[in-house]
Amino acid sequence: MLHAENLTRLFHVGGQEIRALDGVDLRIDTGEYLRILGASGSGKSTLLNLLAGLDRPTTGRIVTPAGDLAAMSRRELARWRAQSVGMVFQTFNLIPHRTALQNVELALLFAGVGRAERETRARDWLVRVGLGARLAHRPADLSGGEQQRVALARALVKQPHLLLADEPTGNLDRDNATAIAGFLSAASRAGVTIVLVTHDATLASGDAHRTIRMTYGTAAEEPREAQ
Predict the structure, then answer these.
(1) Helix or strand or coil: residue 169?
(2) Cβ(192)–Cβ(156) under 8 Å?
(3) pLDDT over threshold 80, residue 224
(4) Lower CB density within 10 Å: C or N end of the chain?
């Protein structure tokens, strides 16, 4: 589904060059559940931003069914995200003045789905994640775990080919983290390709098909027995 070749991402801070990614090669197959581990500053989130088309590599290419992300225009990258990519972050990124239902519907609005279908699909996904009774609640009226369930429903409602999850349980207690991990596993079994970035070595340890360990901008696959 996706093949990244020799990815580098350089930043210049105070006259110093920072190599956030340093020659990363990565292949992600359709339907794969890939887990990326690493300490803070290892390049995990930088890599995820490149796969989402939120940033561009300094060198290298990212080949997808839609084309090379590194060569796409901003409009083409926006289309890639709207049509093919769902994203979940550590910070829930919900719109404060919108209800849970409206927050989920927005993902379909950007994908060009009609109003009636948007509401039906958003309602269905919120029910799936256990929030059928919280449709009209705004983010401030929801717990952290509930907000992340809304964010997950928003990511999955458009039936993405690729789900990118960046530390999705980082702000949650263990019970809520376990619940979110369960929803990710269910999405994987349904055929969604998932890339999970986490510093928690226990998260999805039994569900991910492969684990990549990132260190100082480089990536190496861990042996199965070490996962």
Answers:
(1) coil
(2) yes
(3) no
(4) N
Read off the pLDDT of residues 69-106 as tens digits, 9 standing for 90 and up: 999 999 999 989 988 999 999 899 999 999 999 999 99
Q: Where are the beta strands (DSSP E) in the chain?
A: 2-13, 16-28, 33-37, 59-64, 67-68, 85-89, 162-166, 193-198, 210-215, 218-221
The full DSSP string for 186-213 is: HHHHTT-EEEEEES-TTTTTTT-SEEEE
- What domains are defined for the chain? 2-226 (3.40.50.300)
Q: Which of 83, 27, 9, 52 is nearest to 165 (CA)?
A: 52
In the predicted model, what is the mean pLDDT of residues 138-166?
A: 95
pTM: predicted TM-score of the whole model, two decimal places: 0.91
